[in-house]
Amino acid sequence: MRRVPVESSSLHSVGYDNEVLEVRFHSGGVYRYFEVPAQLFHQLLAAESKGRFFNHHIRDNYGCICLVERGTATPRPASN
Fold first, then answer.
1. Chain centre distance of CA 6
2. Which residues have CB under 8 Å from 63's CB, separation 6+?
3. What local confidence, expressed as pLDDT, does residue 72 receive?
4. What is the pLDDT of residue 18?
5. Cβ pair 67, 76 in contact under 8 A
6. Range 70-79 average pLDDT
7. At 56, which helix (H) or strand (E)?
8. pLDDT beyond 90 at 80
9. Could you give phi then psi for residue 70, rounded to 5 degrees?
10. Which of 5, 13, 23, 69 is the most exposed place for a label (fewest CB within 10 A)?
11. Does residue 71 have a pLDDT over 60?
12. Which residues of 5-28 are buried (b: 16+ CB within 10 A; e: fewer)?
C-alpha cells in the first residue's frame, strides 16, 4: 500500500485503501487497521497531533495485524 509521510513524533507515514489504514511508526513497526472509515482517515491527516489522534481514535478501536515488527525490516507472517 502506498503511504504518505506525516509530521508526527510517533507516526512516520500512513496509507489508506478500502477501509484499511496502514501505519508505519518511527520505531519501524508497520500495522494495518481494518474497517476504518474514510472520514476517520481524513481526520487523522488533518489532526494537529496525529499521534494523539491515532492513539485516541484508532489504536484500540479497530482490529489490526502487524506487518513488520518494530526495529526490524522483515515482514511478519500473518496469523490465521
1. 11
2. 33, 34, 35
3. 61
4. 97
5. yes
6. 57
7. helix 50-57
8. no
9. -65, 140
10. 5
11. yes
12. ebebeebbbbbbeeebbbbbbeee
Q: How far apart are CA 65 and CA 78, in angstroms?
A: 7
Query: What secondary structure letter does DSSP report for 8?
Result: -
Amino acid, res. 44: L
Q: For residue 26, what are the contacts with CB-CB under 8 A and spacing of at least 6?
A: 8, 9, 10, 11, 12
Task: Assess contact for 45 and 36: CB atoms under 8 A.
Answer: no
Residue 13 is placed in which grid cell? Answer: 507515514
pLDDT 10s digits, 19-65: 999 999 999 999 999 999 999 999 999 999 999 999 999 999 999 99
Q: What angle do CA 44, 60, 39 make, to 5 degrees?
A: 30
